[in-house]
């Protein structure tokens, strides 16, 4: 139940971040990535991502919880893909990659960066994720 509630709350946060009617797709994705970075730095390292905390251990021990995490992360990626597709249509995001692939790449990059922030106890992995995301979102210079 706790994991399901966490995912529901996370998706509600996404909706709040993406609700700005006059922002481009690029601006909405950037606000999401900034939110992610800001909730895991400055003494908050790892406090917010229950998926990062549980995935490695629980996914092998509880099939039920693994399925909840799989469905939840799939929903997050689907929502990101919708925003990315809108951004590709409004011209603010690079159309090179299909929106679902780009959404998965971004989510996986930031999930991995969050794990590395926990390991290193500093925000440098988020800087790498930010630079990588910029290239993915805007295309190579």
Task: Characterise this structure.
- The protein has six helices and no strands.
- The chain is mostly helical and 141 residues long.
- It has a single domain, classed as Tetracycline Repressor, domain 2 (Orthogonal Bundle).
- Helix 5 (99-120) packs antiparallel against helix 6 (124-138).
- The longest helix has 28 residues, at 63-90.
- The N and C termini lie far apart (45 Å).
- The mean pLDDT is 88.
In short, what is this structure?
With 141 residues, the protein is mainly alpha-helical.
SS summary, helix count: 6
Radius of gyration: 15 Å
CATH top level assignment: Mainly Alpha
What is the tally of beta strands? 0
CATH architecture: Orthogonal Bundle
Fraction in beta strands: under 5%
Mean pLDDT: 88
Strand count, sense and closure of the main sheet?
none
Order of helices and strands: HHHHHH
């Amino acid at each position: 139940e706790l994991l399901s509630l966490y995912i529901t709350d996370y998706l509600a946060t996404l909706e709040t971040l993406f609700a700005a009617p006059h922002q481009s797709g690029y601006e909405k994705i950037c606000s999401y990535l900034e939110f992610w970075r800001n909730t895991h730095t400055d003494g908050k390292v790892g406090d917010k991502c229950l998926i990062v905390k549980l995935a490695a251990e629980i996914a092998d021990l509880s099939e039920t919880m693994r399925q909840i995490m799989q469905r939840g992360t799939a929903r997050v990626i689907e929502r990101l893909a919708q925003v990315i597709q809108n951004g590709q249509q409004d011209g603010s995001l690079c159309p090179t990659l299909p929106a679902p692939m780009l959404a998965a790449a971004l989510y996986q990059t930031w999930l991995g960066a969050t794990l590395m922030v926990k390991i290193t106890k500093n925000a440098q992995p988020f800087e790498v994720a930010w630079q990588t995301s910029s290239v993915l979102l805007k295309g190579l210079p």
